[in-house]
Design a protein that fits this description.
- By secondary structure, the protein is an alpha+beta fold.
- The two termini are 28 Å apart.
- The N terminus is likely disordered.
Amino acid sequence: MDRSHDLTERATGAQPRALVIGGGPAGLMAAEMLGRAGIPVLLAEAKPSLGRKLLMAGKSGLNLTKDEPFDDFLRAYGAAADWLRPMLEAFGPDEVQGWARDLGQPIFTGSTGRVFPQAMKASPLLRAWLARLEGLGVRMRSRWRWTGWDGAALSFDTPEGAVRITPEVTVLALGGASWARLGSDGIWALLLAARGVELAPFAPANAGLCVQWSEPMRARFGLPLKGVQFRAGPLSSRGEAVISSRGLEGGGIYPLTPALREGAPLRVDLLPDLVREAVIARLSRPRGKASVANHLRKALKLDPARLALLQEFGRPLPAAPSDLARLIKALPIRHAGLRPMDEAISTAGGVARAALDADLMLRALPGTYCAGEMLDWEAPTGGYLLTACLASGRWAGRAAAARLVAG
């Protein structure tokens, strides 16, 4: 027996029938499904602890899902909606809420339909989830970095040395290519490509914009842009954004990433609740001795953030009320493109749909399944990302379990 196999025996006991690589939401859910089926499963995570990206998301209030009509919910997934539909029909917003409650986490729905744990953080839910997995017999190993295949075995670098595992089924849930420090580095793409797996190039999703501000804008850094509507190509968003030193960040910008990646111009309606004629009427009121800025502030109730944006991108401001109203309703935002991919919340690209069968099993590698953000789909923030990660992890885990039971 060679040394690597001996290390496998000492580190994990008998060879597991199922292996899950990746300790994020998709991997944890796949492991849960396998464990519930009574299948010995080993969960390997490269980082020192599991669920690191989930914990990071929970720092601002863990948005579990979105409580809205299913067709509206599905529309958020764009071109991947028909692919994800069966997974989300099986485990959608209602099921996510029930799953969180079953883990002992009370939830609430905000005014926008977003669903959060009452604790407003991920750590209590993650602790309960890991305890459930342990109770199901799932063996969890951290600091196990997958390095590829050695014949039929999967190889890992571990604190104990090189380890090889030869499971009957494998679920890969390795994340996308953003937030490398949390584990999603996309290096796995090279390993799969070498095995003939079709991949789509990675691209940033849910990313902020780089803007080279003028010096006067420094006084506005940190201000939120509220009550506006952003548009890029066919996409629009009524969410907020923050004026930061690096550009524009926030939920109002993130949903437009697909169109911005394609080069669509970005425009913002500073007064989306007023039609253009109403804006013209207000601008036509006598100005007296008031400055242009004070006239805009009083007549249109523009707050400092919106007024600063108008001055930044609209100067010299048109004198005619009709022209100024047109600018206010569709202000062009000059920018230098999306933030780097590693700073994006998520990524597009990854394992192509054509590379997978209906069970999310790789056609080139029978018995190997993929789930979560490593698949080629994208969705805006607001609960859509996490729900699809959970749903696809559940789908792949159940399919892997069914393969073992049938085999």
